[in-house]
TrEMBL record:
GO molecular function per UniProt: mRNA binding
Protein's UniProt keywords contain Iron-sulfur: no
NCBIfam families, per the entry: hnRNP-L_PTB (TIGR01649)
Keywords recorded for this protein, A-Z: Phosphoprotein, Repeat, RNA-binding
Superkingdom of origin organism: Eukaryota
Protein name, UniProt field: RRM domain-containing protein
InterPro entries, A to Z: HnRNP-L/PTB, HNRNPL_RRM, Nucleotide-bd_a/b_plait_sf, PTBP1-like_RRM2, RBD_domain_sf, RRM_dom
A cellular component annotation (GO) from this entry: nucleus
UniProt keyword Phosphoprotein, yes or no: yes
Domain RRM: 51-125, 342-416, 459-533
Taxonomic lineage: Eukaryota, Metazoa, Chordata, Tunicata, Ascidiacea
Gene Ontology BP terms: mRNA processing; regulation of RNA splicing
Length: 535
């Protein structure tokens, strides 16, 4: 039989037990877990480096997104095989060099998912050949979406819920629409006193199937009627993973508690009033934690009411959500940011232009950068350690996808808890630098106005610390070296500050990293940040 053949072959090799486990896992997944065809792989000798990575000791509830994100931290992932029943997965990387870096890095600092240490090693197979079972189709759709989420015509559905007598959550929508394809992103909102949602499906066919099947249907008996049409948007841009929006292809997005603090539900007024002494800034967690707990209790109450209602025809789905909340102790990742790491992994950097100082300057707009390490073998990748995990989330939120020197930055949280300094004499290219004592930190002073002036990258830059003898022409000429200057004006009441507008956000980002701390006189260095104002 196939199993006996594998066992006999493996016992005769030097890596017997490993290959037996791996091949049996693949065989079991293909013939039982995935319900149809076998998952076939082409084996290689155990002493060779493979571009296929074998990951063990995964949590039983691990998602495809979490496994893919682990690989994307090192490079492009071309294939995925999930063996959830065995707490294992296989990732096929773009090439063996990417796989080598991943295995070497994970050997030094093993990654974790939900505090569970993972074991990462080369697979004994040179490539993955997955079948067309539903599980594999889903995995491929998620993999494609996480690496290219541009979307297209009719990928996004606009859903209006009429006669909504029972609460509709993101999880309820996700449960309903995943029956017709892969839900990549969801945004919910209220317009004209109606609950509405935008859902981006895996492709236009999935969207069409969901629309034809669900339009006009009731979620519950006689109420919560779905009205579905195609959105004009080709794709959704989700900034936060919380109870209002979710990007299922990215688990690294912040929860955006600041929006809750600015527009608190009436049921949370007492919580807010009792926390009046707390500053509702991106750098304050205590108030957000209290609000998150209240939101969890509110969810438990509303879901409990829905389950107890005999008119609900979809009680199973709602009950499952209630059970999940109860089992998790009223704690979910969508309500507040995890305590997580303060280290960010940045990829797709321009190797010819990047330096630790440039990364320190750019990420320093959103927090105090402690250390920067550019990878020696892959200089398009870097690790950036912020002062704390909150600053890391703020920087990731604003800089992921931003273009720097022609490349769109890919910013995710790192598996590392800190950036290690190299031993003396090892860092030949001076690629790792410690900025702990830098005088250019923007947030080291408690109560600094910089905490209140954190804005996303924009064409308009705020300039400060300008000497009286520096002219508009000089500043415009200096910035023109990095792009086209569209506008400039000094502040009327304070000539030490000015606004300058570049033609694009990319040019503004480049100007900031090149001109921040530019020497204007013996005692004045230019300070540059992004502005929310317009000229």
């Amino acid at each position: 039989s196939y199993v006996e053949m594998i066992v006999m072959e493996m016992l005769s090799s030097s890596s017997g037990s490993k290959r037996i486990n791996e091949d049996l896992a693949c065989f079991t997944s293909g013939s039982i877990n995935n319900g149809a065809k076998k998952i076939r792989t082409d084996r290689i000798n155990s002493d060779q480096v493979s571009k296929v990575i074998h990951i063990r000791s995964l949590p039983s509830d691990v998602s495809e997104q979490e496994v893919i994100q682990l690989g994307l931290s090192f490079g492009k992932v071309t294939n995925l095989l999930m063996l959830k029943g065995k707490n294992q997965a296989f990732l096929e990387m773009e090439n063996s060099e990417v796989a080598r870096e991943m295995v070497n890095e994970c050997a030094i600092s093993p990654p974790t998912i939900r505090q569970r240490v993972l074991y990462v090693q080369y697979s004994n197979h040179k490539e993955l050949k997955t079948d067309s079972s539903p599980n594999q189709v889903k995995a491929q759709a998620v993999l494609q979406a996480m690496q290219q989420t541009e979307g297209g015509p009719n990928h996004v559905l606009r859903v209006v819920v009429e006669n909504m007598l029972y609460p509709i959550t993101l999880d309820v929508l996700h449960t309903i629409f995943t029956k017709f394809g892969v839900v990549l992103k969801t945004i919910t909102f209220t317009k004209n006193n109606q609950f509405q949602a935008l859902l981006q499906m895996g492709d236009a066919i999935q969207s069409q199937t969901a629309k034809l099947s669900l339009d006009g249907q009731n979620i519950y008996n006689g109420c919560c009627t779905l009205r579905i049409e195609y959105s004009k948007l080709p794709a959704l841009n989700v900034k936060y993973n919380n109870d209002k929006s979710r990007d299922y292809t990215r688990n690294d997005l912040p929860s955006g508690e600041s929006s809750i603090l600015n527009n608190p539900p009436s049921s949370l007024q007492s919580i807010l009033s009792s926390s009046a002494g707390l500053m509702p800034t991106p750098y304050s967690n205590n108030a957000a934690a209290s609000i998150a707990a209240a939101l969890q209790q509110s969810q438990l109450n509303t879901l409990s009411n829905a389950v107890s209602s005999r008119s609900a025809i979809n009680n199973a789905a709602v009950a499952a959500q209630l059970a999940n909340l109860i089992n998790s102790g009223g704690s979910t990742s969508s309500s507040m940011p995890s305590s997580g790491t303060s280290v960010l992994h940045v990829s797709n950097l321009n190797e010819d232009m990047i330096s630790p100082q440039i990364l320190f300057t750019l990420f320093g707009v959103y927090g105090d950068v402690i250390r920067v390490k550019i990878m020696f073998q892959r200089k398009s990748n870097a690790l950036i350690q912020m002062n704390d995990n909150t600053q890391a989330h703020v920087a990731m939120k604003h800089l992921h996808g931003v273009k720097l020197f022609g490349n769109s930055l890919q910013v995710v949280t790192s598996k590392h808890s800190q950036v290690q300094m190299p031993r003396e004499g090892q860092d030949i290219g001076n690629l790792t630098q410690d900025f702990s004592n830098s005088p250019l930190h923007r947030f080291k002073k408690p109560g600094s106005k910089n905490f209140q002036n954190i804005y996303p990258p924009s064409e308009v830059l705020h300039l400060s610390n300008i000497p009286n003898d520096v002219t508009e022409e000089f500043l415009k000429d200096s910035f023109a070296a990095f792009g086209k200057v569209h506008g400039f004006k000094f502040f009327a009441k304070d000539r030490k500050m000015a606004l300058i507008q570049m033609s694009t956000v990319e040019e503004a980002v480049k100007s900031l990293v090149m001109m921040h701390n530019f020497r204007l006189s013996d005692t004045n260095h230019l300070r540059v940040s992004f502005s929310k104002s317009q000229i």
